[in-house]
Amino acid sequence: MLQRGVRAMRVLRASSVGLTRPAASRSLAPNAARFSSSRSRFPAPLVASPLLQRAGLFAAAAASTSAACAFCSSSNVAMSPVAEAAVAEKAAGQQPTVVLYQYEPCPYCCKVKAVLDYLNIPYEVVEVNPLTKKETQAFTSYRKVPVCRIDDEVVVDSSAIISRLRELVVAPTTASNEDEAALAEEEQWRQWVDQKLIILTPPNIYRSVPEALQAFDYCLTEGKFTPMERRLSKYAGAVVMYLIAKRSKKKYGIEDERQSLYSALDSWVAAVGDDRAFLGGAEPNMADLSVFGVLRAMHGLDTYEDMMRETAIEPWFSRMTAKVGSSSRTASN
Predict the structure, then answer these.
(1) Beta 123-127 vs 329-332: how paired, if at all?
(2) CB-based contacts of 261: which residues, under 8 Å, 6+ apart?
(3) pLDDT category, 163, cuts 50, 70, 90?
(4) For residue 122, is the peptide bond before it cis, meaning its omega torsion is within 30 degrees of 0?
(5) Per-residue pLDDT at 130
(6) Quick one: pLDDT at residue 126?
(7) pLDDT, averaged across the chain
(8) How confident is the model at residue 143 (pLDDT cuts 50, 70, 90)?
(9) SS3 call for 196
(10) In this model, does residue 101 exceed pLDDT 90?
């Protein structure tokens, strides 16, 4: 994948391409008691990640194991001593101070934001320059997003961040046979998100150069970038992701990206069924939030409009939108 990223950079150079959300602070309590999940992934010391030694702009981006975003990441990590020491203090329900370093449309970042919003945890957002990563260089050599500051702790990787946030919420500890079956179903569909749904994301949102540019329009408005940085991020990022999306489509044998996405969403709707509002029942579980986060990342894009028109996902998505509620984001930088 690294070699592919290097080739993508060479293509970019050869082409000589010319380059130049409102806050609503809420309490932690309302959704905390309803939140449920079986999956635990915890933050490790940053030096534990082999990704940290990978440098370069597009080469490092293309080396990502994430099929959804070459600049994003999701993987398995273990709990750090800092996190262990903080569990007892946070179990009392004290609101953490959360700063999320992100790209606005990144599906992994949107997964984290869906959990923060659902749990009513206030958080500040810092938009990261997708090419330079200058916003996070001062405190981590991790080259992807999301990166999250939770009080004095730096947590990388979306799954690790979500697991750390779960530790700050009082969750039910009892389990019955029925609960175990529900948790197994939840885990199955969480894996489906990472192994199926997210794989279909880049071939769809970066399907053509115009759609890739559309996906990077956020660079022109989000974050504190110079005019040159905004244009460079939009055009260079769009070209790189368009090339990577084409390779992903070939790698996974995706013939028709739209139809594959529609089929995947139909499978999800069938799994939820007609007898329950969410996969988690009356309340969303982690699988619901994961799917919702990925789909919400497509909002405003052609892919979003197409999937709402061509599939039966809209009723579930509307219920999730109402349940997650307005953003608990307090500031954007």
Answers:
(1) parallel
(2) 200, 204, 303, 307
(3) confident
(4) no
(5) 83
(6) 95
(7) 78
(8) confident
(9) helix
(10) yes
C-alpha distances out from residue 251 to 8, 55, 245, 248, Å: 15, 24, 10, 5
pLDDT of amino acid 71? 59
Please report the pLDDT score of residue 91 as a whole number.
44
Structural tokens at position 5 = 């990223």
Find all residues with CB under 8 Å of 4, minimum gap 6, and list them: 62, 244, 247
Q: Which residues contact 216 (CB under 8 A, 6 or more apart)?
A: 233, 234, 235, 237, 238, 241
Cα–Cα distance, 24 to 327 (Å, whole number)? 6
pLDDT score of 256 more than 50? yes
- Quick check: 217 pLDDT over 90? yes
pLDDT at 59 over 50: no
Measure the CA–CA gap between 107 and 92, rounded to whole angstroms. 31
Could you tell me where the DSSP H helices lie in the chain? 2-15, 29-32, 58-62, 81-90, 107-118, 158-167, 177-192, 201-205, 209-215, 227-251, 257-272, 286-296, 302-310, 314-324
**What are the structural domains, with CATH classification, of the chain?**
21-167 (3.40.30.10), 177-325 (1.20.1050.10)
CA angle 228, 231, 237 (to 5 degrees): 125
The whole-angstrom separation of Cα 213 and Cα 239 is: 8
C-alpha span between 9 and 52 (Å, rounded): 20
DSSP string, 278-303: BTTBSS--HHHHHHHHHHHTTTTSHH
- Check: CB of residue 298 under 8 Å from CB of residue 307: yes
Contact predicate 36/171, CB 8 Å: yes
Identify the pLDDT of residue 53.
35
- With contact defined as beta carbons under 8 Å apart, do 60 and 244 qualify? no
Residue 17's pLDDT is what? 39
Closest of 298, 323, 287 to residue 104, by C-alpha: 298
pTM, 2 dp: 0.72
| Calpha distance 144→51 (Å, rounded) | 9
Who has greater pLDDT, 9 or 290?
290
Measure the CA dihedral 128/129/131/134, to 10°: -80
